[in-house]
Amino acid sequence: MNDILNARERFGLLVIDEKPDRCNIIPLITSHAAMVNKTRLRDYYTDGEIMARAQIAAIEEYGHDAISIFSEVGIIAEAMGSKFDYPDDDLPILRTPALSRQSIGEIKIPEPENDGRLPIYLDAINYAYRAVGDRIPILAYIPAPFTTGMMLSEPENFLIQTIREPDRVKEIMDKALDAAIKFSYEIINAGALPMIVDPLASSSVISPRIFKEFVLPYERRLINFLHRYDLDIILHICGETGPILDILPETGADLISLDQVDLKKAINSLSKRMRIIGNFDTSELAMMMPGEISQAVKHMVAQAKNSTKGYIAATGCEVPIRTPRENIKAFIKSAKEAGWYWE
Amino acid sequence: MELIGYTCSYIPVEILSAAGYRPYRLLHGDFGLMEKSDPWLRVDACPLVRSNLGFLLEHQQRFVAVVGSTGCDMSRRMLEIVDAITDIPTIIINMPRTDRLEIYYDEIDYLIKRLAELSGGRIDDEQINRQIRVWEGLRNFYRHYSEKRRENPSRLSTVSFHHLVANFHQGNTQPVSYSQLEVSNLPRVFLLGSPVGYESTFLLKIIEKYLRIIWDYNCGLSRFLNVKIKGKGVDGIKSAYYQQPPCILRRPNKKFYEFIKKKIVEYKPTGMVLSTLDYCDAYEFELIKIGNIFGLPTLNLRSDFSFQNRSQLETRINAFQEMINT
Amino acid sequence: MNNIPGKITMSEWSEIFNSLPEKIIERYCYYNNNEWGRYLQPPATFFVYGARELKRLKFDNSLAALRMWGFVFNESERLFRAKQSGKKVIATCGDLGTVPVIIMGFPDCIPFYPECIWWTPFFNESNVLLEPAHQLGAPEAACFSKAALGAFYKRAYFPKPDLIFASTGASCDDYSCVLQLIEGLGYEIEWLEIPYRRGFDYPERFVKYLTNEYERVYKKMKNLTNFDKPEQLAETIKKINRLRLRVEEIKALVYNADISPLPALELMVIEFGNLYGYADIDEWLDIVDMIYETVKQRVAAHQGVLSPDAVPVAWITPSADPYLLNLIEDYGMRVVETEYVINQALVKIEEAIEPFTALAKSFMKASLIGSTRERIARIQKAVAAGRIKGIIITNMLGASHCAMETGLIGYYLRDVPSITIDVPAPSGITEQIKNRLMAFAETLRQGYYE
Questions:
Q1: Does CATH place domain A7-338 in 3.20.20.210?
Q2: Whole-angstrom distance, CA of residue B38 vs CA of residue B60
Q3: pLDDT tens digits, residue range B139-171?
């Protein structure tokens, strides 16, 4: 079957409860795009135009359904004062968390047009939007307040503080939320759809209780802000989410991107309230043979494509940077075949 | 005899004649004439309309009136320009674009009324029946020639046929004969498309250098032969003109395609030439469908009457011939 | 909200929007549905969803205008929601203003004009609707209404209509040809015949033809809905007249004010709302009332959105590219009269006569079914009254009536200078076009022609 719709039209139908020609296919192709474009990773995340061009190259190579403006989850924390190292061939690495040098009060809400690498993201959005924005949705991944909070602190300390100094954590979270809102605002005005990523809120990291107390309220407030604009908001949480499945709709997210969870179970719990995105295992994507991937993807899509509020075929997490291209092509080809809706 | 211009196959020549005028179908396809209409028409107006307007502006004194229809938008609007900038009276009748028979019938009555006013006389059934005999006789006469094109091998070129039928279109009621045999064994094709203009013989000549046009559905060639008046009086005319195979602009235009398909079965052409004028909505929008629906190799030729692309046209026609032959 | 009227950018709207209380956002819903019917969104929302031109457009800064834009940009979703919630969605094509009145007389039936999607490629600065239209047979040089062909093919811009009515006849051929191609895609079309008017003293039988056609529409709708209350049509006509009257009042206020109280772009959107109320006539009426109040207040306060010395011009034939309406204001002109080929949707429908006949008579005033002279009579009158200093005519290359009318329009309106702009493909407005408009404005301002 040949596509009839472009990616923007396809996504547009999904979010108004209509079946598109086929299911949306949005594997989380982020920094892997640098490999497609034969770009040094450091250039990818320090130059917006390069990031956008790499993303466009990936779209041209694979034909998936969204541009993903993203490199790593420290982007807001960095703009708030955390220091990162920029290896040539790897993603930025947290060197000094802001809160190890400053008090919470000293941390300022960043100006997205000036601080850290936020302007690079905005440049990337601007470039991609001008180039393909009429045909392809631009997703800009926004680290959620909890993830940013952790990147402002020593991660281990931050987790301990959720028990010992909950008020301090909430103070950090308030700042992280303000920063996320401000950044989201600029992202919207640049033409991208904010997609909230909260990998560190995974049940592999925190308990459902901590999630409810420190993650949920902030995600909800961020999503409430975005809902004023009537945008359809994707929330992505990596890792294990089984224990918090029932809580996820309370975030208000319209689409939920899941990783390590039984897809059938997730559909049963969530599909009447949220659109499901997921959840192909990225290690399998990187390691399996294309034929095996095809088979597994078809099984996944067949299982999920008719979920009540719609489905996006995706990977559970970011596509590993060095995933063989043939594997991704196999993923997309088989998702297209299995995900066809129209007669 | 004074000329009365007309623009559409749905305007009965018998009625124009009965009013005492010589019906002159506006079918000019001359680049030089087009320039004369430039002050009024944009370059994206139909070349036939531009050319016809140029002709009318140059020959105003020869025309007692011009009759047009709503058959196509540009043609209808040409009459509005004539009305605005010349002293030639114009009459526009509603040519039904759907199957609304009564509109057409009423409009023929209106046409008769207007022509009677214009000529200062009465147009009665006797005059009309006389003209039916004259024009039906002419149609039968030219049908005979059209059939010669069809024979296998074809015995008359469409180039010559075009010359002959120009007499009909220009209101000559004397049958003009042609006795020369032009036998051809070239690939046999249909010609469809925008009207072939009086000055477009050149295009037909290039086509027939490589192909033989054995039938056409073209307002500038044999389309008038599809009118067969069986009844008498105005009613006979109304019925015959209304029932002629429809214009491609009829909505829906399914019957147009059915008619052409029937003719393909009947004539068994080996290809189709589709000649389209620039900005001719009627055919430009249907090019792809025509190319697909008939199951025949189809050659699309596009022109603005300038024929500046002569060598390119010839190469394409030649290539088309080779393609059919193989 | 800022009380000083003005034109603002998309980003400026976002800033204002951020400070809007939640209760205002919640207040406005289409089809009275608060779950999915909210529509008060700033231009940035639609920018995120691909309306790329919004970044360079400027908008009126009133809440009423924000509401209007949100409502208009939500139309596509609204049509899908209509269908999802059990309403019948009826495509009315080609007549621009009359058939929808009949449709609205049936409960839960929503008329819309697929050809109005011709603005979408321009708002999106995109060929994604035009390219498939070309592949399906529409010529490159043809009216931008061919975008409807792309939309019918894609099935992503409106739901499959329950019925399609298409008018043909004495109108622009381009759209009739587009509709024929749409039928070729497998859609069933109910064709309606539009007669040529032949002057305003047209024969009464033309009204009868149209009346018959409208009765046929009614019967089709009756069969579709099992609803048969012809008297409802009279009520709908009253409602439509209220809208048309209100729009006339807004136009009169805007045209005659010392300082223009509303930009030309917003006024064009309002004028086109007369066609079908953007698929929720009741909500649209409310919006138009709100705009009226805003305009009235501004006029009373001698406030406006343009410079007081803006040169008054008339605009003939709507521009498919909204940006042109912005530009002429940037260059110091203001629109004080229009001829957007929808005369038939602006006139009052008679209420004292049989409804189908009343509709037919109102349609006989249509822009494109008669001569050019009739079409621009209103503009000629405004010129004669000295209200207009220049004429802007927009054309589409290859559109049948544009090619034929522009010369005549210039001829009939030769007492005032005019400029003709060929609307280029999406995102195609060049510096040359800008320079021409700028020079035109400059010339008018200096009064060389007076």
A1: yes
A2: 17
A3: 999 999 999 999 999 999 999 999 999 999 999
